[in-house]
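Proteins fold. Shown next:

***
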Amino acid sequence: MAYYYLVSQLPNISAAEGKSALPLNEVSFKELCCRFLSEDEKSIVGSLSLVPPKDASSTGSVFLDTWYEKERSLRYALAQIRAQKMKKDAAVLPPGVTADIIQAARTAVGMDSPLSAEQFLFEYRIRLLDELRPLDSFSVDSVYAYGIRLLLVERMKKFDAEIGKTSYHKIYDNILDGDKKKK
């Protein structure tokens, strides 16, 4: 019953809002969840992450276990394709890596700019999240799905092309300065 009250208070979130502030952030989301969820569910919400656990241990949620498995597979595919592109040894992909995950990784690695690749991967992850989202909108798994979506959108909002260029030039200049000192 508490899920109805919680889910009805969660505002719609979208990365399409540009750089404007989200109506809810990760901290506010977790605080709101603490008023309605059991201790086990609060623990799961507190541990939500965009980085899946390396092992496939159960979270207690079929939705989250599936999400983390897909994300883990995507990361393995990205690592393998990047390694192959650099002519390095690549680890064998685990059995859960599907053709659509491999294709998404290939597309992202083949993009000209890292920002474009991140935008593509964001959109891929959002589509995947929508496919996995529970049918019952008022379930604890829907709360977890909202939390993952919020983390994805917050991460994407942090990207800024100008800041990225400035950071790149700073790193590049530091490398060149280091090479000059060696000579």
In short: The mean pLDDT is 88.
